[in-house]
Amino acid sequence: MSQSAILQQQHNEESETITAKRFKRWMTALVISMIAGGGAILYRAIEGLAVTNLSAFVPWGAWVAFYIFFVGLSAGAFLLSTLIFVFGMEQYERVGRFALFTALICMVVALTFILLDLGRMDRSFNAMTFWNVMSILSWEVRFYLIYMVLLATELWFAMRIDLVKLAKEKLGFKSKLANVIRLGSDDTSDLSAKKDHRWMKILGIIGIPIAIIGVHGGTGTLFAAVAAQPYWNTPLFPIIFVVSALVSGTALLIAMYVIQRKVRGKTVDLTMIKGLATLMIFFLVIDLTLEFYEFLVAGLSLKPEKMAVLDVMFTGPMSWSFWGVQLFLGAVVPIYLVFSKRTNQSVKALTVAAILVVIGIIGVRFNIVVPTQIVQSMKGLPQGFYFPNWVEWLSSIGVVAMGLFLYSLGAKFLPLETEEGDVNSHE
Amino acid sequence: MSSKYDVLINKGLVNGADILKSSKYDTKLGLNMAADARRLSDGLISEQAFVEKYQESVGKEFKQKLALQATTDDQSGVKWGMVIDLRKCVGCETCTVSCKAENRTPPGVSYNQVFVEEEGTFPNVSRTNIARPCMHCDKPPCASVCPVRATYKADNGIVVQDSDRCIGCRYCMVACPYGARTFDFGENYDEMTGYQEATSPEHGMDRGKREDGKSPIGTVRKCNFCFHRLERGEEPACVETCIGDARFFGDLNNPDSVVSKMANSSRAFRLKEEYGTEPRVYYLR
Predict the structure, then answer these.
(1) Which residue, among A378, A381, A383, would best test binding to B if mutated, counting the most B CBs under 10 Å from its CB?
(2) What domain range includes position B138?
(3) Chain B residues lying within 8 Å of A126, measured CB to CB
(4) 3-state class of B250 per DSSP?
(5) Greater pLDDT, A394 or B67
(6) Please, are residues A400 and A41 in contact by the beta-carbon 8 Å criterion?
(7) What's the half-sphere exposure (Cβ side, CA atoms, 13 Å) at A159?
(8) Selected residue of B185, B220, B274, B283 to mutate for chain A interface (largest A Cβ count, 10 A)
(9) Shared domain check, B43 and B89
(10) Do B54 and B190 sit in the same domain of this protein?
(11) Chain A 248-307, CB below 8 Å of chain B: which residues?
């Protein structure tokens, strides 16, 4: 399989073998992680949620945090793709298809996380067969599915011409796969390309409200609508969700793009990376501002229930995740790296900034889910404590590895990379 | 199967036939009616059948007419509610224990809890025990967030949990302002001999022995005002066992019921009324 892939790309053979070797090593590492994570998932499936650190006091934990994290990554990546396909920011077109594919894979990962979190995984389809108009979660399940179908359709239109071209080569697995996925389409004319672009634009336009209001704003509303959790219960919350989705989505795409190009020994478009990094910091600053006001208003209005949650977040035993991960690693360092003249010309520094932002958003997600549950709804109840145990960590690693595995397969066998001729060179 | 204790008890018991002989009425009829009355209370025959069977002979013997009793106290318009008198509560947690015993709840699952709140500084201190069952809110946030409608407001005022539909997402636990919901992690009191043998017909449905992978394990559980007891005409376990007689249970739809009168007294208040959940559990301060 990999042999034919090598033949197909008639570049420098030596670098191709190195790439193939790296790919093999990478995939082996992922498979090992998946097996380890699969073991933890099996253990959890047999023994139930009792093997996690979840309790009656803190019913939602790491899996819910990762679920909203990946829904956020997906929405962010998709919205970035709309900048390209709807708003015509063609300077970013190189990451367009990656953005769509990343968005799709992230949804798969997010849904796997929430499946793991269900007390009765065998009843997960109840969420489709039964419907509660008042329940945001019920709406979300449907929005996620519509959104995933939309992502897949738009990605298909984005790849269609390349799929047809690949299928015509009739060489190796990649070509065979393209032949199946093209679904009988074989028009490569300019007119059809224009039609594709129009379809992508239409789907992107439909997708924007679905992604913002339906998928991620909706996920934020899922939290914001809970009156019993005063920390969540603000109208700003869904907006923060969407903005932090944009932050993490942009950051993830920068990191993914650079790493893939570097691994394959290809050049990186620095101008585009710098543009995307600035965009990322722009979203990050808005995000921080919104959060600042969220805390400020909560603090100044002296609402005891809100103060209690902020107290846990700022001074509790897990406050390092707020100050250290969310603020220092996730905001201060990346902002410095992107704005400092010493570092903002280096692809490496910008990539590090992007990765740090992604990690910072993981901190944001944990701090959304956990601290408010530490403070109990009734005064007499003991204060909760939560930190994921090994089952939760290992299974999470497994699920993320599954996402990366699917992504790597896609990156290898699907025409996600835009060919050099398609984009005006910025190098 | 009768053990020696049964023999002893039977010896001590007075014979029904002997007693009935001393009355002027028919002994045989009395014994038959008693036997059928027992079958009626066990649910083996209907009241209708009982009345039809004895109408004629009762008319002859007692010159009375048998009437259907069940129809006179129709429960279709009933909306259950509870009143807890905080001045009577001593904080003994009998309600918590009797609830666990009645509903056979596993470790970590408790439908009823008692919170102790101490206020003031010595020597001016007050201590309040707040017993907290499910509030059975008229506008339950748990029911509105449930994605599969596994929990809902029943006509009789009880917020019901359908253990056969619940997917265990625990959204309702996060949404309940009273912390009245707990997740069944599947743990057992292994140190208790025969813990899994006895079962409780929650929501009037006996699920048999508690087993892994079988409802309600892996789902969210909550107080249901001991619905299985209400069906038998009994009060919830916590009300019946309260040593200070601090709990009252009844129909809040009926303006003459004890609970209605108490709920309308100036002492009455409800927990966290600012959430607009309209609890059906009232407290007397």
Answers:
(1) A378
(2) 80-284
(3) 148, 150, 165, 167
(4) strand
(5) A394
(6) no
(7) 29
(8) B185
(9) no
(10) no
(11) none
Give contacts of A 312-331 with B, CB under 8 A. Answer: none
Q: Are residues B47 and B85 in the same domain?
A: no
CB contact under 8 A, B167 and A124: yes
Residues 6 or more apart whose CB falls under 8 angstroms from that of B204 comprise B227, B228, B231
Contacts of A373 in chain B (CB under 8 A): 174
Q: Is residue B84 part of a domain?
A: yes
> Using an 8 Å Cβ cutoff, are A103 and A245 in contact?
no
d(CA B141, CA B277): 7
Q: Are residues B121 and B214 in the same domain?
A: yes
- Give chain B's domain count: 2
Question: Among A45-49, A422-426, B23-27, B83-87, whose mean pLDDT is lowest?
Answer: A422-426
SS3 content of chain A, % helix, strand, coil (to 5): 75, 0, 25
Mean pLDDT, chain A, rounded, equals 88
* B58 and B87 part of one domain: no
Q: Identify which of A47, A132, A141 has the shortest CB distance to residue B149.
A: A132
Closest partner residue to B178 (CB to CB) among A55, A123, A378 is A378
A90-99, A114-123, A254-263: segment of lowest average pLDDT: A90-99
> B188 touching A, CB under 8 A?
no
CATH of the domain at B235: 3.30.70.20
Average pLDDT over residues A204-209: 89
Measure in Å the smallest separation between the Cα of A75 and chain B Cα atoms.
22
C-alpha B186/C-alpha B189 separation (Å) is: 10
Q: Is B74 a member of any domain?
A: no
Architecture of the domain defined by A23-287+386-418: Up-down Bundle (1.20)
Q: What is the pLDDT of residue B232?
A: 83
Write the CA distances from B257 to B133, B237, B260, B263, integer angstroms: 21, 19, 5, 10
B187-246 pLDDT, tens digit each: 888 888 777 777 788 887 778 888 888 888 999 999 999 998 888 888 999 999 999 999
Whether A119 sits inside 8 A of B147 (CB atoms) is no
User: What ipTM was predicted for this assembly?
Assistant: 0.88
The CA distance from A352 to A105, in Å, is 22
Determine contact: B186 vs chain A, CB below 8 A.
yes
Going by pLDDT thresholds of 50, 70 and 90, the confidence category of residue A1 is very low
Measure the CA–CA gap between A261 and B194, rounded to whole angstroms: 64
Is A126 in contact with B167 (Cβ distance < 8 A)?
yes
In a domain, B160, yes or no: yes
Q: Between B170, B186, B275, which is nearest A227 by CB?
A: B275
Q: Are residues B85 and B181 in the same domain?
A: yes
Q: B67 in a domain, yes or no?
A: no
**Do B127 and B204 share a domain, yes or no?**
yes
